[in-house]
Write a structure and sequence with these properties.
Subcellular location: Membrane
Number of domains: 3
Structural class: mainly alpha
Helix content: over 70%
Number of helices: 20
CATH architecture of the largest domain: Up-down Bundle
Domain Major facilitator superfamily (MFS) profile: 22-455
Largest sheet: none
Radius of gyration: 21 Å
Transmembrane segments: 21-44, 56-76, 88-106, 112-130, 142-164, 176-196, 208-227, 233-251, 271-296, 308-328, 335-354, 433-451
Mean pLDDT: 85
Keywords: Membrane, Transmembrane, Transmembrane helix, Transport
Pfam family, one: MFS_1
C-alpha cells in the first residue's frame, strides 16, 4: 500500500501526501455509490410492503437508478471537460447526497423513484470519470497499481453491500439505508473540494444534439433489455429504436465540433481491442450472476441466503487479486496478464457449467473462486491498458466509454438469461453458462490480438523513462 503513495523525481500526478487525501475521496465516493446499488436490493420486499406496491413494481427502485446512471455516463464524461473533473465529481456527490435524503423521506412510490433517478445521475457524475481521476492523481509508473486499487474498492463495495443492508434492516427501517449516504456523501464532497486537483476548463460549446441522441439510444437499449428479459415482444421495437438512435448518434459525432464521444479513440487499436474484451467479459459476468441465482435456487434447492454466500468468493478473490495484478501490470505486459485472467475465467465458467445436481457447496465455492481469480487478473491490467493507450486530454472521454461499456455488457448478459427463461431456447438455465464461456472466448481472442502492440508500447515507455 505504501508504494501507491511513493514519490520519485520527475513523477507526474500529485505528490504523495496530496495523493493520499485524493485517494480517500475517490474511495469514499466509489463506496457510497456501489454499496448503495447492492444494499437496496435486499430492502425491496420491505419497500414493497411499506409503500403498498407489488414486488414487481418495487424492482423499479433499482431499475430507475440503473437506467439513469447508465444513460448518463457518456454525457457526464463530456461535461467534465467544460466543468472540470473536480467540479463534476463534487457536484455528483452533492446531488447524490441530497437525493439520498429525499429518498429517505419519501412516503410515496413515485417520489422515491424520482429521487432514485436523481441518485443515479449523481452516481453517473462520479463513476464516469473515476478512472480518469486516478490517472490524473497517480504517476504513470503506478497507473496499474492505481487501477488495481480501484478494482479492489469496487469489489469491497459489491461484497459488503448486501451484508450491510441486512444489518441495517435488522435494527431500522429501509429509509435509513438512504439516510446513511447523506453524511458520508457530504464528507466525500468536502474532501473532493480540498483534495482533487484543479485543471483548466475547455473553452467551446457542448454537443447537445449528441447528448440527446446518446440518452435516447441508451435509455431505449436498457428498456429493451429489460423487456426482452421478461419475454416482452415490444422489446424488439425498443431495440430497433436504440439502433436507429445509435446510427444517428455516430453520424452526429463525425461532424460535431465538440463531440460527446471522440471516435478517434477507437482508431487506437489497443483501446478498441481492450473495450471489446471488457464488453464481452461483462456480458459473461451479468449472464452468469443471474443464471446461477436461478440454478442454485430452482435446480439445486439452495435458500436465498445460501445462494448469496455461494457468490461471495467471486468479489473476495477480486479484492485479493486486483491490487497484485495492477502492480504486476506496471512491470510486465498488461495485455498478457489480462489474457491469462480471461483464460482462468473461462475455465471457471466451464467448470460451473459442468456442475451436476449432486454438487456440494464446496464444489460451487472453488469454481466461483476460480472465476474471481480470473476476473481480478483481467480487470486491473485491462483498465491500465485502456487508460494508458490514449492521450491524457482524452482520459475523461475514455473513462466514460469504459463505464458505459461495462453497464451495457452487464445489461445485455442479464437480458440473455431472461430471454432464455422466457422462450425456453435452452434445456436449462445452467446451459446459458456456456454462452458466458463463448463471450469469454471472444474476449480472449480480442485480448490476444493486442499482445504485440502492448509489448511495443511498454518497451517504448521504458525507453522514454530511461531517457528522462
Amino acid at each position: 500500500m505504501s508504494r501507491l503513495f511513493s514519490t520519485r523525481p520527475g513523477d507526474d500526478g500529485l505528490p504523495g501526501p496530496e495523493r493520499r487525501l485524493a485517494v480517500l475521496t475517490l474511495v469514499l465516493g466509489t463506496l457510497i455509490t456501489v454499496v448503495d446499488v447492492t444494499m437496496i436490493n435486499v430492502a425491496l420486499p420491505s419497500i414493497a410492503r411499506d409503500l403498498i406496491i407489488s414486488e414487481a413494481r418495487a424492482v423499479w427502485v433499482v431499475t430507475s437508478f440503473q437506467l439513469v446512471c447508465g444513460a448518463s455516463l457518456l454525457l457526464c464524461a463530456a461535461l467534465s471537460e467544460l466543468l472540470t473533473r473536480r467540479r463534476l465529481y463534487l457536484s455528483g456527490l452533492l446531488l447524490f447526497s441530497v437525493a439520498s435524503l429525499g429518498a429517505a423521506l419519501s412516503e410515496r412510490f413515485e417520489t422515491l423513484l424520482l429521487f432514485r433517478a436523481l441518485q443515479g445521475l449523481g452516481a453517473a457524475a462520479t463513476l464516469s470519470i473515476g478512472p480518469s481521476i486516478y490517472r490524473q492523481v497517480f504517476p504513470s509508473r503506478l497507473l496499474g497499481a492505481a487501477m488495481g486499487f480501484s478494482a479492489m474498492v469496487v469489489a469491497v463495495g459489491y461484497a459488503s453491500g448486501p451484508a450491510l443492508g441486512g444489518l441495517v434492516l435488522a435494527v431500522a427501517d429501509w429509509p435509513w439505508l438512504f439516510a446513511l449516504n447523506v453524511p458520508l456523501g457530504l464528507i466525500a464532497a468536502m474532501l473532493a473540494w480540498r483534495a482533487l486537483p484543479a485543471e483548466p476548463r475547455r473553452q467551446g460549446g457542448f454537443d447537445l444534439a449528441g447528448a440527446l441522441l446518446s440518452a435516447a439510444m441508451l435509455v431505449s437499449f436498457f428498456l429493451a433489455m429489460d423487456a426482452l428479459g421478461h419475454g416482452d415482444a415490444w422489446g424488439l421495437a425498443l431495440l430497433a429504436l436504440s439502433l436507429a438512435c445509435g446510427v444517428a448518434f455516430l453520424a452526429r459525432q463525425r461532424r460535431a465540433r465538440y463531440p460527446l464521444l471522440p471516435l478517434g479513440l477507437f482508431r487506437e487499436p489497443r483501446f478498441a481491442l481492450g473495450i471489446q474484451a471488457q464488453g464481452l467479459t461483462f456480458i459473461a459476468q451479468g449472464l452468469v450472476f443471474v443464471a446461477l441465482s436461478f440454478y442454485y435456487q430452482k435446480e439445486l434447492g439452495y435458500s436465498p441466503l445460501q445462494t448469496a454466500w455461494l457468490f461471495t468468493p467471486w468479489p473476495l478473490i477480486i479484492m485479493l487479486t486486483a491490487p497484485l495484478a495492477g502492480r504486476l501490470a506496471d512491470r510486465v505486459n498488461p495485455a498478457l496478464l489480462a489474457s491469462t485472467g480471461l483464460g482462468l475465467l473461462m475455465s471457471g465458467l466451464a467448470a460451473l457449467a459442468l456442475l451436476g445436481p449432486e454438487a456440494s457447496l464446496a464444489d460451487s465455492l472453488w469454481r466461483m473462486a476460480l472465476c474471481g481469480l480470473g476476473f481480478g487478473l483481467f480487470q486491473a491490467p485491462n483498465n491500465r491498458e485502456l487508460m494508458s493507450s490514449i492521450p491524457r486530454e482524452r482520459s475523461a472521454n475514455a473513462s466514460g466509454v469504459m463505464s458505459t461499456t461495462r453497464t451495457l455488457g452487464q445489461s445485455l448478459g442479464v437480458a440473455v438469461v431472461g430471454l432464455v427463461l422466457a422462450t425456453g431456447w435452452l434445456a436449462s438455465v445452467q446451459a446459458t453458462l456456456w454462452l458466458g464461456c463463448l463471450a469469454c472466448l471472444l474476449a480472449l481472442l480480442a485480448s490476444l490480438r493486442r499482445l504485440p502492440l502492448s509489448e511495443a508500447a511498454r518497451r517504448e515507455d521504458h525507453r522514454r523513462r530511461l531517457a528522462e
